[in-house]
Write a structure and sequence with these properties.
The chain has 9 helices and 7 strands. With 248 residues, it is α/β, with parallel strands linked by helices. The chain has a single domain, classed as 3-Layer(aba) Sandwich (Rossmann fold), CATH 3.40.50. Strands 3-2-1-4-5-6-7 form a 7-stranded parallel β-sheet, with helices on both faces. Strand 1, helix 1 and strand 2 form a beta-alpha-beta unit. The protein binds nicotinamide-adenine-dinucleotide (NAD).
Length: 248
């Protein structure tokens, strides 16, 4: 019960990695706040959780929208009066050549993958600072370090922004005993990579020293560690979970 009674917000909770994080957190005793655009999928996640987590708070919100983020955080504080953990997991990815990326597409990827991390972190940091306690974990990507194997340049750039935002916030937040870290998954079996097709996924798996994609649970285990007090002296860390694809 590493997270007993901790209030944890997970964005992108209806997706492959977000669902796994929700399950790991539920099994560790956390009170969950699950946020996603996809209401039907969020309800399925709730149905799949253990009985004691069935009363988790679900919020349908666009993580890129400032007013949605402010009202989501206000609802959590109204219901629980505190936020202990924030996992910024919502994200979108597209396989696309740089020549085909239009400005609107560039802006949307930046907004969903990077602006959202800024918006949620800012709202939650304000509150965590007053309590002198908190854990923020951002989901970046191996693509942020080596460029995308399949993902567009806008995706990789947005995730590189997540890494530097993580370090910058970690520096500011340390004075308040708030830990800010990121996890950098390599290719992971979720809806996001399913969309790339079997052949592409086989080709990419072959480039990974472990010769297979991560399971979402592999990412969730790293997030759980960083969210727990076992990681209380770790901040500004960018934790690779990628089967050896990137070693730095
Ligand atoms: N799957 C991978 O190989 C991989 C690798 C590295 C990093 N990541 C990152 O991990 C995170 C989770 O990815 P995943 O593989 O679980 O993808 P996924 O597509 O399964 O899940 C993403 C979730 O985010 C939600 N979402 C998208 N836009 C949103 C918005 N504007 N507001 C609210 N919710 C929104 C979607 O509805 C979906 O439920 C993402 O940030 C992704 O970039 C994934």
């Amino acid at each position: 019960m590493l997270l007993k009674n901790k209030v944890a917000i997970i964005t992108g909770a209806a997706g492959g990695i977000g669902r796994a994080v929700a399950r790991f957190f539920a099994d560790s005793g956390a009170q969950l706040v699950l946020i996603d655009l996809d209401e039907a999928a969020l309800n399925q996640v709730i149905a799949s959780l253990p009985e004691k987590s069935k009363n988790s708070l679900t919020i349908v919100a666009d993580v890129a929208d400032e007013s949605d983020v402010k009202s989501a955080v206000a609802s959590v504080l109204r219901q629980f009066d505190r936020i202990d953990i924030l996992v910024n997991c919502a994200g979108i990815c597209k396989m696309i050549s740089i020549l085909d990326i239009e400005v609107a597409e560039w802006d949307r990827i930046m907004a969903v993958n990077l602006r959202s991390v800024f918006l949620f972190s800012k709202e939650v940091f304000r509150h965590m600072r007053d309590r002198r306690y908190g854990k923020i974990i951002n989901i970046a990507s191996a693509a942020a370090k080596i460029g995308g194997l399949a993902a567009g340049a806008h995706y990789s750039a947005s995730k590189a922004g997540v890494i530097c935002f993580t370090k910058s916030l970690a520096l500011q937040a340390a004075a308040y005993k708030i830990n800010v870290n990121a996890v950098c998954p390599g290719p992971t079996k979720t809806e996001m990579t399913n969309a790339w097709g079997q052949q592409t996924n086989n080709d990419f798996a072959d480039k990974i020293p472990f010769k297979q994609y991560a399971h979402p649970d592999d990412i969730a285990a790293a997030v759980l560690f960083l969210a727990s007090d076992n990681a209380r002296y770790i901040t500004g860390e960018i934790l690779d979970v990628n089967g050896g694809l990137v070693m730095d």
